[in-house]
């Protein structure tokens, strides 16, 4: 059985780490309570990406935190990742599933309720819905989905949903209350002074929201 | 047994095709005598790349011309390509072999005799050596290897070598006489008025050079 926990989902961004090595930021965040990591690299050459992914996988393995690779199944296969996260212009989830097999975790980004509906029969394990709030992290981000849009996606998804986009400690609980199973964050962890403390705080907020909700 | 023929090796470049669809240029060139095709896309998103690769694979299959994908093993797996061609900053050939298995064709770019020597124990089926001549096709091309450098690579390779970089009908025979098993060309086919005729001419030249040599 495939196990993953969307509660506090770190999506990496090397430039946002400032002068710090990405591997250190990821390790700190994981020690603080991150439950899932997606390695996202848009500029690295393949060999560099594979080497980075292997280092991250090695750091996460003893903590039991699964590693997903954004877009690149080749990198996921080479580093022994637990799965991939694909966007609408990445490999189709059906192709990804055919290559990676039933045991891989596969997530899909949806920017609208329509895309969530279209994805109902896709062989994916969770949806990443957003941007929930305005964000400066992704230059080509879609229009803001909002909390109501997120709720619509949750209603249509038929599987767990993680919210992404502009999420931090100030609004994490709202995202959970809108029905998301967790929060995916980029700058709230990568750019944090202490990724460990930031992860701990986010996990507490997610658990608190779930307590209120349940 | 893995079979491939490096004689006239087309490396694709969409911008060089002008207004023509890449698939048409590849099909024409293959009809003219291209013996191997490498699909090289540096700008396409993964889904677009997979769709293009499937169309090219479908066009080449009835002609018995193998398709290799540049760099991207994920795309190669998704489209059922015959293998990949990797550069020095792409996935390491040993990782590529572990993922694709013994039946895949794997080629490696080498820009110097030192790199050819370093690659001796790598699980690759051929080396692509170049740039043999100056070329404008690749913005980040290494210093020119020249015919003597190509000859050195051939002597060190321990496997077939295809020359690449600035090769066309005017100098194809020299490349063969320097010991290469074939010519890899980009603009000489992609930018040709008739890719079919250009391929036919190159194949005749390669065969003529081989006749002289043998």
UniProtKB/TrEMBL annotation, chains A, B:
Keywords: Magnesium, Metal-binding, Thiamine biosynthesis, Transferase
Xref: Pfam families: TMP-TENI (PF02581)
Keyword Zinc: no
GO cellular component term of the entry, any: cytoplasm
Cited Gene3D superfamilies: Aldolase class I
Catalytic activity: 4-methyl-5-(2-phosphooxyethyl)-thiazole + 4-amino-2-methyl-5-(diphosphooxymethyl)pyrimidine + H(+) = thiamine phosphate + diphosphate; 2-(2-carboxy-4-methylthiazol-5-yl)ethyl phosphate + 4-amino-2-methyl-5-(diphosphooxymethyl)pyrimidine + 2 H(+) = thiamine phosphate + CO2 + diphosphate; 2-[(2R,5Z)-2-carboxy-4-methylthiazol-5(2H)-ylidene]ethyl phosphate + 4-amino-2-methyl-5-(diphosphooxymethyl)pyrimidine + 2 H(+) = thiamine phosphate + CO2 + diphosphate
HAMAP family: TMP_synthase
Full protein name: Thiamine-phosphate synthase
Organism: Alkalidesulfovibrio alkalitolerans DSM 16529
């Amino acid at each position: 059985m495939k196990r993953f926990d969307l509660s506090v989902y770190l999506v990496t961004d090397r430039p946002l780490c400032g002068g710090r090595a990405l591997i250190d930021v990821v390790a700190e965040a994981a020690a603080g309570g991150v439950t899932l990591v997606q390695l996202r690299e848009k500029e690295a050459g393949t060999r560099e990406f594979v080497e980075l992914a292997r280092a991250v996988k090695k750091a996460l393995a003893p903590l039991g935190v699964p590693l997903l690779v954004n877009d690149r199944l080749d990198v996921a296969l080479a580093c022994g990742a637990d799965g991939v996260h694909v966007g609408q212009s990445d490999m189709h989830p059906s192709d990804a599933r055919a290559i990676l097999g039933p045991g891989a975790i596969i997530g899909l980004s949806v920017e609208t309720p329509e895309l969530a509906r279209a994805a109902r029969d896709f062989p994916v394990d969770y949806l990443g819905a957003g941007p929930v709030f305005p964000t400066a992290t992704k230059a080509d981000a879609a229009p803001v989905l909002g909390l109501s849009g997120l709720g619509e996606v949750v209603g249509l998804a038929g599987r767990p949903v993680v919210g992404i986009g502009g999420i931090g400690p100030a609004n994490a609980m709202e995202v959970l209350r809108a029905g998301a199973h967790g929060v995916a964050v980029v700058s709230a962890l990568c750019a944090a002074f202490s990724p460990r403390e930031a992860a701990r705080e986010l996990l507490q907020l997610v658990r608190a929201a779930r307590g209120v909700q349940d």
